Structures are given as C-alpha cells and as structure tokens.
Amino acid sequence: MAIRFQTKKEIVAEVNETASKALSLVIADYRGVTSNDMASLRAKARAENVNLRVVRNTLARRAVEGTEYACAVEAFTGPSILAFSMEDPGAAARLCKDFAKTNEKFEVRGLAVGGEFLGADQIDRLAKLPTRDQALSMVMAVMLAPITKLAMTLNDIPGQVTRVVAAVRDQKREAA
C-alpha cells in the first residue's frame, strides 16, 4: 500500500525524535511472529518504557540520519522492528532477548548504543546492564561499606576489652 509523501515525512520526523531521545536501539526481524505474540510484546514494551516501531527500511534509514544510530543502517534489511530504550539502556535488549527465547521466528539482527553498532551475538552485553535502580543500589552499597566496617570495628573494641579482662581474670584464678 502506498504511503502519501506527507505521511512519510511525519513518520520520519517521529522516528527521528524518538531516536534522538533514546538510549539504545535493537533491530529485529519479526517475520512469522503471530499478531497475538506481537501484541504481548508491545504490552511488555509499554510497561518497560521501550518504544517499538515497524517502519519501512528506507524511512528508517532517513529517520536515524544525524543521530547516534546512523551506524545501524546496514541492519535495515527485510521486515524490521525497531525497539528504542527510553529510560534504561538495556531495557530493549532484555525485552527482545526474552521474547526471542519464546518465539523462534523473532530474530535479533543487531543493536546500537553510543554510536556503536553491535551484532546480534552481543545482545547479552547490553541486556546484562543493571537497571537504574540496581546501579544506584550498587553505588549505595559501595558507599555504605566503609561506614559499616568502621561501626563494626568500633563496636568490637569494648568486646575485645571484655575478653582481655576475662582472660586476665582466668589466669589469676588458675595461678591462685
């Protein structure tokens, strides 16, 4: 079905705006995936703040021009679904990886992050990134560790004194 020129311009503008705000991009081939499965993928994507778009490859190439995802134009072949992570760089990678486990026909072609294109075999690299909350908790644990260690050390001093006094008492009792 032919798309009017004005509609094409609007699609390119929308995808370009999304790409300029996104943190990462995953490109996948969705050929053969049922509409019910695609609906469940879209629902999961909305829940994880991942923007999914099915766009013609020529329009997708124009849309990513001038963004850090211009490196991914080689992967725009055949039917493609674009998954843009909007808040968490690993969200789209985790979503597509999990979906591909349950749907054999869904195939990840590649991903782009920080102006670098990675092959589909590198999806674990991005999918294993911690979420923002996980990263913050890791940083807080690292910041809290020295304080905890100091408190434990200071708390142990009276215990050490008590054990030394008890040992001296026991020695004097044995000597007497």
Please give a structural write-up:
- This protein is of the alpha+beta class.
- It contains six helices and five strands, in the order H-E-H-E-H-E-H-E-E-H-H.
- A five-stranded antiparallel sheet has the order 2-3-1-4-5, with helices on both faces.
- Helix 1 packs across helix 3.
- The radius of gyration is 27 Å and the shape is elongated.
- The protein starts with a helix and ends with a helix.
- 27% of the residues are buried.
Q: Layout of helices and strands, plus pairs?
A:
Elements: H1 5-21, E1 24-29, H2 35-47, E2 50-54, H3 57-63, E3 81-85, H4 91-102, E4 107-113, E5 116-119, H5 123-127, H6 132-175
Antiparallel strand pairs: 1-3, 1-4, 2-3, 4-5
Helix pairs in contact: 1-3
The gist of it:
This protein is of the alpha+beta class. The protein has six helices and five strands, in the order H-E-H-E-H-E-H-E-E-H-H. It is 56% helix and 15% strand.
* Secondary structure: number of strands: 5
Distance between the termini: 105 Å
Write down the overall geometry: elongated
- Provide the low-confidence segments as ranges: none
Average pLDDT: 86
- Give the strand order, joined by hyphens, for the main sheet: 2-3-1-4-5
- Radius of gyration over all CA atoms, rounded: 27 Å
DSSP helix fraction? 55-70%
Strand content: 15-25%
Give me the number of helical elements: 6
Which secondary-structure class do the elements indicate? alpha+beta
Largest sheet: 5 strands, antiparallel
Helices and strands, in N-to-C order?
HEHEHEHEEHH
Oligomer: single chain
